[in-house]
Automatic annotation (TrEMBL):
Descriptive protein name: Molybdopterin molybdenumtransferase
Keywords from the UniProt entry: Magnesium, Metal-binding, Molybdenum, Molybdenum cofactor biosynthesis, Transferase
Lineage: Bacteria, Bacillati, Actinomycetota, Actinomycetes, Propionibacteriales
Catalyses which reaction(s): adenylyl-molybdopterin + molybdate = Mo-molybdopterin + AMP + H(+)
Naturally occurring in which organism (per UniProt): Kribbella antiqua
Cofactor(s) required, per the database record: Mg(2+)
Amino acid sequence: MLPWDVARELAHATGTPLKAVSKPLSDAGGLVLASPLVSPMAVPPVDRAAMDGYAVCGGGPWRVVQHVGAGCSAPVVLTVGEACSIATGAAVPSGATSVVRDEDAVLVGELLQGPAEPGRHIRRAGEECQADELLLPAGVVVDPAVLGLAASVGLNRLTVIPQPRVAAFVTGDELVHRGASGPGRVRDAIGPMLPGLITRAGAQAGPVQHLPDSRQALIEALRSTDAELILVSGSSASGPADHLRPALAALGAELIVDGVACRPGHPQALARFDDGRLVLGLPGNPLAALTAFLTLGVAAIRRMRGLSLPALTFAPLPGGVPCHPRSTRLVPVRVTAQGAVPLGHGGSAMLRGAAAADALAVIDPGPASAIAARLLPLDPGAQPWAV
Ligand SMILES: Nc1nc2c(c(=O)[nH]1)N[C@H]1C(S)=C(S)[C@@H](COP(=O)(O)OP(=O)(O)OC[C@H]3O[C@@H](n4cnc5c(N)ncnc54)[C@H](O)[C@@H]3O)O[C@H]1N2
Ligand code: MOO
Protein backbone atom coordinates (compact mmCIF):
# COMPACT_ATOMS: atom_id res chain seq x y z
CA MET A 1 0.00 0.00 0.00
CA LEU A 2 1.76 3.19 -1.17
CA PRO A 3 1.30 6.68 0.32
CA TRP A 4 -1.03 8.78 -1.87
CA ASP A 5 1.63 11.23 -3.09
CA VAL A 6 4.12 8.47 -3.84
CA ALA A 7 1.52 6.52 -5.82
CA ARG A 8 0.54 9.60 -7.82
CA GLU A 9 4.16 10.42 -8.65
CA LEU A 10 4.82 6.79 -9.59
CA ALA A 11 1.81 6.77 -11.93
CA HIS A 12 3.16 9.92 -13.58
CA ALA A 13 6.63 8.42 -13.91
CA THR A 14 5.19 5.21 -15.37
CA GLY A 15 3.44 6.94 -18.28
CA THR A 16 5.44 7.48 -21.46
CA PRO A 17 4.92 10.62 -23.55
CA LEU A 18 3.49 9.69 -26.93
CA LYS A 19 5.46 10.30 -30.12
CA ALA A 20 5.19 13.86 -31.44
CA VAL A 21 3.26 14.50 -34.64
CA SER A 22 2.64 17.50 -36.86
CA LYS A 23 -1.00 18.69 -36.90
CA PRO A 24 -2.81 21.50 -38.68
CA LEU A 25 -3.93 24.22 -36.27
CA SER A 26 -7.53 23.06 -36.66
CA ASP A 27 -6.61 19.68 -35.07
CA ALA A 28 -4.06 20.88 -32.51
CA GLY A 29 -6.35 22.45 -29.88
CA GLY A 30 -5.97 20.88 -26.43
CA LEU A 31 -2.80 18.98 -27.36
CA VAL A 32 0.60 19.76 -25.88
CA LEU A 33 3.47 21.44 -27.74
CA ALA A 34 6.20 18.88 -28.35
CA SER A 35 8.67 21.53 -29.45
CA PRO A 36 8.99 25.20 -28.59
CA LEU A 37 6.82 27.67 -30.47
CA VAL A 38 9.26 29.85 -32.41
CA SER A 39 8.08 32.69 -34.57
CA PRO A 40 9.32 32.38 -38.14
CA MET A 41 8.79 36.12 -38.70
CA ALA A 42 8.71 39.51 -37.03
CA VAL A 43 5.22 40.50 -35.86
CA PRO A 44 3.90 42.85 -36.98
CA PRO A 45 5.96 42.51 -40.14
CA VAL A 46 5.59 46.23 -40.92
CA ASP A 47 4.65 49.37 -38.98
CA ARG A 48 0.83 49.38 -38.71
CA ALA A 49 -1.79 51.92 -37.74
CA ALA A 50 -3.25 51.22 -34.29
CA MET A 51 -6.29 53.44 -34.85
CA ASP A 52 -8.66 54.43 -37.62
CA GLY A 53 -7.69 57.97 -38.65
CA TYR A 54 -4.98 59.63 -40.67
CA ALA A 55 -1.29 58.84 -41.12
CA VAL A 56 0.57 62.12 -41.23
CA CYS A 57 4.09 63.26 -42.05
CA GLY A 58 5.67 65.99 -39.90
CA GLY A 59 3.71 68.78 -38.15
CA GLY A 60 0.23 69.86 -39.28
CA PRO A 61 -1.78 71.09 -40.94
CA TRP A 62 -1.65 68.35 -43.58
CA ARG A 63 -3.21 67.91 -46.98
CA VAL A 64 -5.10 64.60 -47.31
CA VAL A 65 -3.74 62.93 -50.43
CA GLN A 66 -5.21 59.41 -50.39
CA HIS A 67 -6.79 56.51 -48.47
CA VAL A 68 -5.09 53.32 -47.18
CA GLY A 69 -7.47 50.44 -46.36
CA ALA A 70 -6.48 47.51 -44.07
CA GLY A 71 -5.91 45.25 -47.07
CA CYS A 72 -3.98 47.80 -49.13
CA SER A 73 -0.55 46.51 -50.14
CA ALA A 74 0.47 49.18 -52.66
CA PRO A 75 3.45 51.25 -51.46
CA VAL A 76 2.34 54.71 -50.35
CA VAL A 77 4.77 57.51 -49.58
CA LEU A 78 3.99 60.65 -47.60
CA THR A 79 6.09 63.78 -47.62
CA VAL A 80 6.06 66.57 -45.03
CA GLY A 81 2.66 68.24 -44.84
CA GLU A 82 0.82 65.25 -46.36
CA ALA A 83 -1.70 62.87 -44.77
CA CYS A 84 -3.71 59.90 -45.88
CA SER A 85 -6.74 58.38 -44.23
CA ILE A 86 -5.90 54.96 -42.81
CA ALA A 87 -7.69 51.97 -41.23
CA THR A 88 -6.58 50.17 -38.05
CA GLY A 89 -4.07 47.48 -38.95
CA ALA A 90 -3.11 48.95 -42.32
CA ALA A 91 0.60 49.40 -43.05
CA VAL A 92 1.52 53.02 -42.42
CA PRO A 93 2.93 54.73 -45.51
CA SER A 94 6.65 55.31 -45.56
CA GLY A 95 7.39 58.79 -44.31
CA ALA A 96 4.47 58.70 -41.82
CA THR A 97 5.51 59.99 -38.40
CA SER A 98 2.23 59.62 -36.50
CA VAL A 99 -1.43 58.61 -36.74
CA VAL A 100 -4.16 61.08 -35.80
CA ARG A 101 -7.31 59.32 -34.56
CA ASP A 102 -10.56 60.06 -36.36
CA GLU A 103 -12.06 61.52 -33.20
CA ASP A 104 -9.09 63.93 -32.77
CA ALA A 105 -9.01 64.96 -36.43
CA VAL A 106 -10.35 68.36 -37.55
CA LEU A 107 -10.88 68.57 -41.30
CA VAL A 108 -11.41 71.99 -42.83
CA GLY A 109 -11.86 71.50 -46.56
CA GLU A 110 -8.87 69.40 -47.61
CA LEU A 111 -6.75 70.53 -44.69
CA LEU A 112 -6.38 68.29 -41.64
CA GLN A 113 -5.33 69.33 -38.15
CA GLY A 114 -4.86 67.32 -34.95
CA PRO A 115 -2.39 66.08 -32.30
CA ALA A 116 0.54 64.23 -33.83
CA GLU A 117 3.29 63.35 -31.35
CA PRO A 118 5.92 61.34 -33.23
CA GLY A 119 5.18 57.58 -33.18
CA ARG A 120 1.68 58.00 -31.68
CA HIS A 121 -0.83 55.23 -32.61
CA ILE A 122 1.73 53.30 -34.68
CA ARG A 123 2.41 49.61 -33.89
CA ARG A 124 6.06 49.16 -34.71
CA ALA A 125 7.31 46.24 -36.81
CA GLY A 126 8.63 43.48 -34.49
CA GLU A 127 6.91 44.98 -31.45
CA GLU A 128 5.30 41.62 -30.50
CA CYS A 129 8.21 39.42 -31.54
CA GLN A 130 11.25 39.19 -33.76
CA ALA A 131 11.93 36.46 -36.33
CA ASP A 132 13.28 33.28 -34.62
CA GLU A 133 12.15 34.46 -31.20
CA LEU A 134 11.00 31.75 -28.76
CA LEU A 135 7.40 32.45 -27.78
CA LEU A 136 6.44 29.37 -25.74
CA PRO A 137 8.41 26.37 -24.48
CA ALA A 138 7.52 22.74 -25.22
CA GLY A 139 5.03 21.33 -22.74
CA VAL A 140 2.45 24.09 -23.03
CA VAL A 141 -1.18 23.10 -23.73
CA VAL A 142 -2.37 24.48 -27.06
CA ASP A 143 -5.32 26.50 -25.82
CA PRO A 144 -7.29 28.93 -28.00
CA ALA A 145 -4.85 31.81 -27.34
CA VAL A 146 -1.93 29.59 -28.40
CA LEU A 147 -3.76 28.71 -31.63
CA GLY A 148 -4.40 32.38 -32.31
CA LEU A 149 -0.76 33.25 -31.57
CA ALA A 150 0.49 30.47 -33.86
CA ALA A 151 -1.72 31.79 -36.65
CA SER A 152 -0.67 35.38 -36.09
CA VAL A 153 3.00 34.46 -36.51
CA GLY A 154 2.14 32.71 -39.77
CA LEU A 155 2.24 29.03 -38.75
CA ASN A 156 -0.12 26.50 -40.35
CA ARG A 157 0.90 23.44 -38.31
CA LEU A 158 2.23 22.67 -34.83
CA THR A 159 4.36 19.81 -33.53
CA VAL A 160 2.32 18.31 -30.72
CA ILE A 161 1.90 15.18 -28.65
CA PRO A 162 -1.26 13.33 -29.70
CA GLN A 163 -3.96 12.36 -27.22
CA PRO A 164 -3.52 9.02 -25.49
CA ARG A 165 -6.37 6.60 -26.15
CA VAL A 166 -8.19 5.22 -23.13
CA ALA A 167 -10.31 2.05 -23.15
CA ALA A 168 -12.83 1.46 -20.37
CA PHE A 169 -14.18 -1.87 -19.11
CA VAL A 170 -16.85 -1.83 -16.41
CA THR A 171 -17.24 -5.19 -14.69
CA GLY A 172 -19.99 -6.54 -12.46
CA ASP A 173 -22.75 -9.12 -13.00
CA GLU A 174 -24.99 -7.10 -10.68
CA LEU A 175 -24.85 -3.97 -12.83
CA VAL A 176 -27.77 -2.64 -14.86
CA HIS A 177 -27.58 0.27 -17.28
CA ARG A 178 -31.16 1.50 -17.25
CA GLY A 179 -33.74 1.96 -14.53
CA ALA A 180 -33.48 1.58 -10.79
CA SER A 181 -31.25 -0.42 -8.47
CA GLY A 182 -32.94 -3.13 -6.42
CA PRO A 183 -32.13 -6.45 -4.79
CA GLY A 184 -29.42 -8.05 -6.92
CA ARG A 185 -29.33 -5.05 -9.26
CA VAL A 186 -26.97 -2.10 -8.99
CA ARG A 187 -27.27 0.77 -11.46
CA ASP A 188 -23.90 1.38 -13.13
CA ALA A 189 -22.71 4.79 -11.92
CA ILE A 190 -19.10 4.48 -13.09
CA GLY A 191 -19.70 3.94 -16.82
CA PRO A 192 -21.49 7.29 -17.21
CA MET A 193 -18.63 9.15 -15.49
CA LEU A 194 -15.73 7.75 -17.48
CA PRO A 195 -16.06 9.36 -20.95
CA GLY A 196 -16.23 12.87 -19.48
CA LEU A 197 -13.39 12.23 -17.05
CA ILE A 198 -11.19 10.83 -19.81
CA THR A 199 -11.99 13.66 -22.20
CA ARG A 200 -11.49 16.35 -19.59
CA ALA A 201 -8.14 14.78 -18.70
CA GLY A 202 -7.10 15.41 -22.31
CA ALA A 203 -7.32 11.84 -23.60
CA GLN A 204 -9.45 10.14 -26.23
CA ALA A 205 -12.23 7.97 -24.80
CA GLY A 206 -13.24 4.76 -26.53
CA PRO A 207 -16.71 3.33 -25.88
CA VAL A 208 -17.35 2.05 -22.34
CA GLN A 209 -17.64 -1.75 -22.55
CA HIS A 210 -19.42 -3.85 -19.95
CA LEU A 211 -18.00 -7.20 -18.93
CA PRO A 212 -19.37 -10.04 -16.82
CA ASP A 213 -17.49 -11.08 -13.67
CA SER A 214 -15.29 -13.56 -15.53
CA ARG A 215 -11.53 -13.84 -15.44
CA GLN A 216 -11.45 -15.15 -18.99
CA ALA A 217 -13.64 -12.33 -20.29
CA LEU A 218 -11.36 -9.79 -18.59
CA ILE A 219 -8.23 -11.45 -20.00
CA GLU A 220 -9.72 -11.35 -23.50
CA ALA A 221 -10.77 -7.74 -23.08
CA LEU A 222 -7.29 -6.72 -21.91
CA ARG A 223 -5.79 -8.52 -24.91
CA SER A 224 -8.26 -6.96 -27.33
CA THR A 225 -7.32 -3.31 -27.02
CA ASP A 226 -4.25 -1.36 -28.05
CA ALA A 227 -5.29 1.73 -26.07
CA GLU A 228 -2.38 3.26 -24.16
CA LEU A 229 -4.41 3.22 -20.92
CA ILE A 230 -7.05 0.65 -20.01
CA LEU A 231 -9.48 1.30 -17.16
CA VAL A 232 -11.11 -1.65 -15.41
CA SER A 233 -13.70 -0.93 -12.75
CA GLY A 234 -15.14 -3.21 -10.11
CA SER A 235 -12.55 -5.98 -9.88
CA SER A 236 -9.97 -4.41 -7.68
CA ALA A 237 -10.54 -6.05 -4.27
CA SER A 238 -9.88 -9.63 -3.27
CA GLY A 239 -13.34 -11.21 -3.42
CA PRO A 240 -14.24 -14.23 -5.57
CA ALA A 241 -15.54 -11.98 -8.39
CA ASP A 242 -12.52 -9.63 -8.32
CA HIS A 243 -10.45 -10.84 -11.25
CA LEU A 244 -8.18 -7.90 -12.04
CA ARG A 245 -5.01 -8.98 -10.26
CA PRO A 246 -5.23 -12.65 -11.37
CA ALA A 247 -5.93 -11.55 -14.97
CA LEU A 248 -2.96 -9.19 -14.91
CA ALA A 249 -0.76 -11.95 -13.50
CA ALA A 250 -1.95 -14.37 -16.20
CA LEU A 251 -0.98 -11.85 -18.87
CA GLY A 252 2.44 -11.17 -17.30
CA ALA A 253 1.73 -7.53 -16.46
CA GLU A 254 3.95 -5.78 -13.93
CA LEU A 255 2.02 -4.47 -10.94
CA ILE A 256 3.38 -0.94 -10.34
CA VAL A 257 0.90 0.29 -7.72
CA ASP A 258 -0.84 -2.35 -5.61
CA GLY A 259 -3.15 -0.33 -3.38
CA VAL A 260 -2.93 3.27 -2.21
CA ALA A 261 -3.20 4.47 1.38
CA CYS A 262 -6.18 6.72 0.73
CA ARG A 263 -9.89 6.76 1.54
CA PRO A 264 -11.86 6.18 -0.47
CA GLY A 265 -10.01 4.26 -3.14
CA HIS A 266 -7.49 2.06 -1.35
CA PRO A 267 -7.79 -1.04 -3.61
CA GLN A 268 -6.80 0.89 -6.78
CA ALA A 269 -3.98 -0.58 -8.83
CA LEU A 270 -1.77 0.33 -11.77
CA ALA A 271 -0.01 -2.23 -13.94
CA ARG A 272 2.07 -2.18 -17.12
CA PHE A 273 2.29 -4.65 -19.97
CA ASP A 274 5.58 -5.33 -21.77
CA ASP A 275 4.30 -3.33 -24.75
CA GLY A 276 3.90 -0.23 -22.53
CA ARG A 277 0.10 -0.27 -22.19
CA LEU A 278 -1.04 0.66 -18.69
CA VAL A 279 -4.00 -0.81 -16.81
CA LEU A 280 -5.69 1.16 -14.05
CA GLY A 281 -7.91 -0.76 -11.64
CA LEU A 282 -10.75 1.42 -10.37
CA PRO A 283 -12.48 0.21 -7.20
CA GLY A 284 -16.16 -0.59 -7.68
CA ASN A 285 -17.55 1.88 -5.17
CA PRO A 286 -18.32 4.91 -7.35
CA LEU A 287 -16.57 7.64 -5.33
CA ALA A 288 -13.59 5.31 -4.90
CA ALA A 289 -13.48 4.86 -8.70
CA LEU A 290 -13.61 8.62 -9.19
CA THR A 291 -10.83 9.29 -6.67
CA ALA A 292 -8.68 6.57 -8.24
CA PHE A 293 -9.07 8.05 -11.71
CA LEU A 294 -8.19 11.53 -10.37
CA THR A 295 -5.19 10.12 -8.48
CA LEU A 296 -3.47 7.58 -10.73
CA GLY A 297 -5.35 7.99 -14.01
CA VAL A 298 -4.89 11.73 -14.39
CA ALA A 299 -1.21 11.45 -13.38
CA ALA A 300 -0.50 8.76 -16.00
CA ILE A 301 -2.45 10.59 -18.71
CA ARG A 302 -0.63 13.85 -18.01
CA ARG A 303 2.73 12.15 -18.55
CA MET A 304 1.50 10.52 -21.77
CA ARG A 305 0.42 13.98 -22.95
CA GLY A 306 3.86 15.41 -22.14
CA LEU A 307 2.70 17.36 -19.09
CA SER A 308 4.24 17.57 -15.64
CA LEU A 309 2.33 16.70 -12.49
CA PRO A 310 1.13 20.04 -11.13
CA ALA A 311 1.74 20.90 -7.50
CA LEU A 312 -1.63 21.22 -5.80
CA THR A 313 -2.37 24.48 -4.06
CA PHE A 314 -3.49 24.77 -0.43
CA ALA A 315 -6.74 26.16 0.88
CA PRO A 316 -7.85 26.71 4.47
CA LEU A 317 -10.46 24.33 5.89
CA PRO A 318 -12.65 26.51 8.13
CA GLY A 319 -13.41 24.51 11.28
CA GLY A 320 -10.90 21.78 10.37
CA VAL A 321 -11.40 18.26 9.04
CA PRO A 322 -10.40 15.15 11.04
CA CYS A 323 -7.40 13.28 9.65
CA HIS A 324 -7.15 9.51 9.27
CA PRO A 325 -4.18 8.16 11.25
CA ARG A 326 -2.59 6.28 8.34
CA SER A 327 -4.42 7.13 5.11
CA THR A 328 -4.90 10.26 3.04
CA ARG A 329 -8.55 11.31 3.11
CA LEU A 330 -10.09 12.64 -0.09
CA VAL A 331 -13.05 14.78 0.91
CA PRO A 332 -15.47 16.50 -1.51
CA VAL A 333 -15.35 20.27 -0.91
CA ARG A 334 -16.75 23.42 -2.44
CA VAL A 335 -14.18 26.16 -2.92
CA THR A 336 -15.38 29.46 -1.42
CA ALA A 337 -13.78 32.80 -0.58
CA GLN A 338 -13.44 31.55 3.03
CA GLY A 339 -11.74 28.29 2.08
CA ALA A 340 -12.70 24.74 1.18
CA VAL A 341 -15.99 23.65 2.75
CA PRO A 342 -16.73 19.91 3.08
CA LEU A 343 -20.09 18.97 1.64
CA GLY A 344 -20.67 15.65 3.42
CA HIS A 345 -21.94 12.60 1.55
CA GLY A 346 -18.35 11.58 0.91
CA GLY A 347 -18.71 7.85 1.60
CA SER A 348 -17.06 5.62 -0.97
CA ALA A 349 -20.37 4.34 -2.40
CA MET A 350 -21.84 7.87 -2.72
CA LEU A 351 -21.51 10.51 -5.39
CA ARG A 352 -23.82 13.11 -3.87
CA GLY A 353 -21.01 15.11 -2.24
CA ALA A 354 -18.73 14.89 -5.28
CA ALA A 355 -21.49 15.96 -7.65
CA ALA A 356 -21.92 19.23 -5.74
CA ALA A 357 -18.19 19.74 -5.12
CA ASP A 358 -15.43 21.58 -6.98
CA ALA A 359 -12.53 19.57 -5.60
CA LEU A 360 -11.37 16.82 -3.31
CA ALA A 361 -9.52 18.14 -0.27
CA VAL A 362 -6.41 16.01 0.17
CA ILE A 363 -6.19 15.51 3.94
CA ASP A 364 -2.76 14.12 4.82
CA PRO A 365 -2.66 11.35 7.45
CA GLY A 366 -2.20 12.55 11.00
CA PRO A 367 -3.29 12.32 14.61
CA ALA A 368 -5.71 15.27 14.72
CA SER A 369 -7.58 17.64 12.41
CA ALA A 370 -6.27 19.46 9.35
CA ILE A 371 -6.85 23.21 9.14
CA ALA A 372 -5.66 23.42 5.51
CA ALA A 373 -5.43 20.95 2.65
CA ARG A 374 -4.37 20.68 -0.94
CA LEU A 375 -7.13 20.69 -3.53
CA LEU A 376 -7.43 18.10 -6.27
CA PRO A 377 -9.86 19.50 -8.87
CA LEU A 378 -12.81 17.23 -9.64
CA ASP A 379 -12.60 18.45 -13.22
CA PRO A 380 -9.36 16.90 -14.50
CA GLY A 381 -9.13 19.67 -17.10
CA ALA A 382 -9.07 22.43 -14.46
CA GLN A 383 -5.92 24.04 -13.14
CA PRO A 384 -5.29 23.51 -9.42
CA TRP A 385 -6.29 26.71 -7.64
CA ALA A 386 -5.79 28.54 -4.36
CA VAL A 387 -8.17 30.70 -2.33
N1 LIG B 1 -12.50 -8.14 2.14
C1 LIG B 1 -12.44 -6.94 1.59
N2 LIG B 1 -13.50 -6.48 0.97
C2 LIG B 1 -13.47 -5.22 0.43
C3 LIG B 1 -12.32 -4.44 0.55
C4 LIG B 1 -11.21 -4.97 1.20
O1 LIG B 1 -10.16 -4.32 1.32
N3 LIG B 1 -11.32 -6.24 1.69
N4 LIG B 1 -12.34 -3.18 0.06
C5 LIG B 1 -13.62 -2.54 -0.10
C6 LIG B 1 -13.48 -1.36 -0.83
S1 LIG B 1 -12.82 -0.08 -0.02
C7 LIG B 1 -13.90 -1.24 -2.10
S2 LIG B 1 -13.84 0.26 -2.92
C8 LIG B 1 -14.43 -2.35 -2.84
C9 LIG B 1 -13.71 -2.51 -4.15
O2 LIG B 1 -14.30 -3.59 -4.77
P1 LIG B 1 -14.08 -3.99 -6.25
O3 LIG B 1 -13.27 -3.00 -6.99
O4 LIG B 1 -13.59 -5.37 -6.29
O5 LIG B 1 -15.56 -3.88 -6.80
P2 LIG B 1 -16.82 -4.76 -6.48
O6 LIG B 1 -16.56 -5.66 -5.36
O7 LIG B 1 -17.29 -5.32 -7.75
O8 LIG B 1 -17.83 -3.64 -6.06
C10 LIG B 1 -17.79 -2.96 -4.83
C11 LIG B 1 -19.13 -2.25 -4.67
O9 LIG B 1 -19.30 -1.31 -5.69
C12 LIG B 1 -20.46 -1.60 -6.48
N5 LIG B 1 -20.15 -1.31 -7.87
C13 LIG B 1 -19.27 -1.96 -8.64
N6 LIG B 1 -19.25 -1.41 -9.87
C14 LIG B 1 -20.15 -0.42 -9.85
C15 LIG B 1 -20.60 0.48 -10.83
N7 LIG B 1 -20.09 0.47 -12.09
N8 LIG B 1 -21.54 1.39 -10.49
C16 LIG B 1 -22.06 1.40 -9.24
N9 LIG B 1 -21.65 0.58 -8.27
C17 LIG B 1 -20.73 -0.34 -8.57
C18 LIG B 1 -20.72 -3.04 -6.25
O10 LIG B 1 -22.03 -3.38 -6.54
C19 LIG B 1 -20.31 -3.20 -4.81
O11 LIG B 1 -21.34 -2.73 -3.99
O12 LIG B 1 -14.31 -3.55 -2.13
C20 LIG B 1 -14.65 -3.47 -0.74
N10 LIG B 1 -14.58 -4.77 -0.20
O1 MOO C 1 -11.54 2.48 -0.40
MO1 MOO C 1 -13.04 1.84 -0.95
O2 MOO C 1 -12.20 2.31 -2.31
O3 MOO C 1 -13.36 3.07 0.22
O4 MOO C 1 -14.57 2.32 -1.20
